[in-house]
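QA checklist item 7 of 12: single-chain prediction sanity check.
[x] sequence parsed
[x] length recorded as 297
[x] structure emitted
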Amino acid sequence: MNVVEVNVNPKRVKHDLKKQERSLLLRRFLSNKLMVTGSIIIVLLLLLAILGPKLTPFDPYEMVVKERLEAPSSHHLLGTDNFGRDLLTRIIYGAKVSMWVGFASALLSSIIGLAIGLTASYYRYLDNILMRICDGLLAFPAILFAIALMAVLGAKTENVIIALTIVFSPEVARIVRSRALVVREETYIEAIRSQGASAARIIWKHIAPNTISPLLVKATFVFSEAVIVEATLSFLGAGVPAPDPSWGNILSDGKDVIYTAWWMTVFPGLFIILSVLGLNLLGDGLRDLIDPQSSTK
């Protein structure tokens, strides 16, 4: 009886498995229509924020009084504001501010929340202290807490990011902690600990990677919440200071002329709705992609 020897290349097998995983992930992504829609909306808004300022011929700060409150036309596609500034240009520059504030707030709150959540889950004596601090911060409504922080820090774009990071970090910390507590009790973690691995190695190399999935989903929702809170702060005069363009302060300028210049409130409001809708669709789709069972519940 002849025996056929088969040479198996481990690297080739590993490469094929990764290729199959990527192909499966892509198919699942394309099959989720809501996630695809949300991704398209966010990509378009990011392109608008990045490339828009280079394409528009108008200066967002240039005031042309004789053209104030002009209705949408071929010259000013979305009309002008109460100072004669091109509204589309200011909305484009406002998109840059809103996307940057939302992204930076989501990134920083994710990093801080990850560190707090992992520390609380691993060190039991710190768990009660850190989580009670988080509970105390979460007791305040997000917008009121942000307004209070801005009153202390001052109206400035960088301070808006700091305030929103403080507001949303406790939420992220609790999400990370709940996941990390489950991972901490896994058998392989006990085996690694019994081999003498340091706490830092266990936390950051073995527990942290298993919390990334829920962290990414939460980050998308923090992004959308940050866009809303930033617009609210700017609308109230506690966020991005004038004359810097922001969707919130454009709405604030338009509230006094809402009956005579409807475009000053309708168009920036639509952009806020689109950005939040896109981020929420992306977050829901990402959650379904990571945990397919959640879509069937």
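[x] summary fact logged: Residues 147 and 238 are 7 Å apart (CA to CA).
[ ] second reviewer sign-off
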